Amino acid sequence: SEIYTPKNYFDRLFTLIKRFPRENINRNYLAMTIHVTHLLERQLLHDFSGSFKIGMSNLFAFYKSVFNYYMLDVIKFLIKVLRYNYRYLTYATYMTIRGYHFIKLAKDIVAAKSNIDQQGKSVS
Q: By the 8 A CB rule, do 91 and 17 touch?
């Protein structure tokens, strides 16, 4: 279950971002590299120059992904991305939102598995 911790998620994500080209970012190259759907690109990844469109649902999801028990990991991750290359902040923001759902799901699965294991031990 250690692999599913927020710190590990953001460390792996930063490793992925470091694999992107550091200079001469081409919007089409980045979209192809991360396999972003057309809808997502229109909705969130409007412009890799730093400005982007964001809907209310994405804004709420970003709020929930930042203000929670792993807020410090999120802030450290976003600062590392800014230091590395500010142009990836849009992608980092998107992945922070996705990470909220992934981390929540992983936490629920680990808790359910632990609960099942405990029930199995009490039956035996």
A: yes
**CA angle (82, 23, 62) in 5-degree steps:** 30
Q: Where are the alpha helices (DSSP H) in the chain?
A: 6-19, 27-34, 38-43, 56-66, 71-84, 89-123
Cα 60 from Cα 81, distance rounded (Å) = 21
Single-letter residue type at 25 = I
SS3 6: helix
Stated pTM of the model = 0.66
Give CA angle at 2 (88, 19), nearest 5°: 25
Q: For 12-54, what is each residue's pLDDT tens digit?
A: 999 989 988 776 555 555 555 554 444 444 444 444 444 445 5
